Amino acid sequence: MFGTVFNDISVERTKADGSRDQIFKVPISYGPKEKYLARVDSRNIGDVDYSVGMSLPRMSFEITSMTYDAIRKLQKTKRHKEHLEDQTGATHVITGYTPVPYNFDVELNVMVKNSDDGAQILEQIMPFFSPEFHVTMTESKALGIKRDIPIIMNSITTSDTYEGDMITRRALIHTLTFSIMGFVYGPTQNIGLIREVDVNVGAQMPDPQQSDLNIDIKPNPEDANPEDDFGFTTTVTDL
Q1: Could you tell me which residues belong to the region Disordered (predicted)?
Q2: Which residue range forms the structural domain that includes residue 171?
């Protein structure tokens, strides 16, 4: 979810007369910045021989920490329910307990080789965070839960590797830190759907042979789903 927020960022290069020369999207992938900086500085990494070094600009992101958020804690015993229909047409009830609130700290690294590219990228990110940006995501496909998740920008820092030797390529790095206020869901259960209640009533209960009445309750219509408008048919039989 986080990476897709930044997957449509582009950089434009201009000619001396100010006209557009080229425009290209900035690639983004998951991983620490050190991994990609190594690719920038070297063509040979381990057993892999790269014909060319990795080009800049590019972006990378990674989750740096996860902390429990007690402020957003909800009632533990509350259940979420979703009604699903399988290939045979049978309706199932999927249920799960209230999710646990967690804050996910994410680091986004913008790696460029000149300040103009970095400024263009930051100009496409910063105006949307004031300081939060909301993204609608499907938190639980099984339970059909969608939620607006706030992504909060915490800080922006910049580092430059211009002090290296003459061989090392320069990399200007803008590091943006974010906090995602999300939830963690536990396992779900298929509890089935109750379509009939059959009760025996008698003075000598619980002996079923001494029942006086049988009460049978079914939905009307019998093939109604939980979200439909339906009633109940109650049948009372003397035994």
Answers
A1: 219-239
A2: 2-190
Q: What pTM was estimated for this model as a whole?
A: 0.71
Do 30 and 114 have their domain in common? yes
- Give the position of tokens 């999927």: 94
Q: How many residues does the chain have?
A: 239
Euclidean distance between CA atoms 83 and 81, whole angstroms: 7
Q: Could you tell me the two tokens for 29?
A: 């992938």
DSSP string for residues in 148-199: EEEEEEEEEEEEE-TTS-SSSPP-EEEEEEEEEEEEE----EE------EEE
Cα–Cα dist 75/78, whole Å: 6
**Residues near 19 by Cβ (< 8 Å), separated by ≥ 6?**
none
Q: How far apart are CA 59 and CA 80, in angstroms?
A: 37
Whether the CB-CB separation of 65 and 80 falls below 8 Å is answered with: no
pLDDT tens-digit readout, 160-210: 866 655 455 667 899 999 999 999 988 888 877 788 898 888 777 666 667
The type of residue at 6 is: F
Do 91 and 225 form a contact (C-beta atoms < 8 A)?
yes
- Looking up residue 9, the CATH number of its domain turns out to be 3.30.2000.40
Q: In DSSP terms, which residues pair with 85 in a beta bridge?
A: 91
Spatial CB neighbours of 231, under 8 Å, sequence gap ≥ 6:
219, 220
**Which residues have CB under 8 Å from 211's CB, separation 6+?**
200, 201, 202, 205, 239
Alpha carbons 99 and 68: distance in angstroms, whole number: 12
134/173 same-domain check? yes
